[in-house]
ArsR family transcriptional regulator (Enterococcus casseliflavus EC20), 97 residues
Amino acid sequence: MTTPKLEEIQQVTQIFKMLSDPTRLKILLSLQEGERNVTSIAEQVHMEQSAVSHQLKLLKDNRIVKSERQGKTILYSLDDKHVVDILQKTFEHIHHR
């Protein structure tokens, strides 16, 4: 692996900041099961919809989740398989002894 550029290091740091928040991590784990609307996510993670919406915006701004409008509903999902890979590898790491 070549030495990353400073900009790349900053981007990686920002992604780990997003993943390091327990609330955002619960939202991402919820989305591993498939796309969901804000109401469904809020119910699953036991939070107010406004709080979930705020966290989803941060995750979307950092390209960790994406959204798609279907009529009046906005459905959220993980941005790509890389997000799933990061989560899976991290959990594998904590279970490895």
